[in-house]
Design a protein that fits this description.
Blueprint (H helix, E strand, L loop, with lengths): L4 H4 L8 H54 L5
Length: about 80
């Protein structure tokens, strides 16, 4: 028994163009949110690294000044 062209295309046989477009839009939005989160995390990481470098410098200056004050001649 041979099937006609109409019989072949009956019923859901895949995704419609609208469904594919909606899936692409949703996927794009998810990627956008992930990109923004990664960008924010990178910015926070860079800011923290700068703060740690500044704290290290202040610690070195504090150590130097404490040594100078401890060995200073009071007279």
């Amino acid at each position: 028994m041979t099937r006609t062209v109409k019989d072949r295309f009956k019923g859901p046989a895949g995704f419609t163009l609208v469904e594919i477009l909606i899936a692409l839009v949703v996927f794009s939005l998810v990627l956008l949110v992930l990109q923004r989160a990664f960008q924010a995390a990178t910015m926070i990481f860079d800011r923290q690294r700068g703060m740690l470098a500044a704290q290290a410098e202040l610690g070195a200056v504090d150590h130097l000044l404490r040594g100078l004050v401890a060995h200073a001649d009071p007279g």
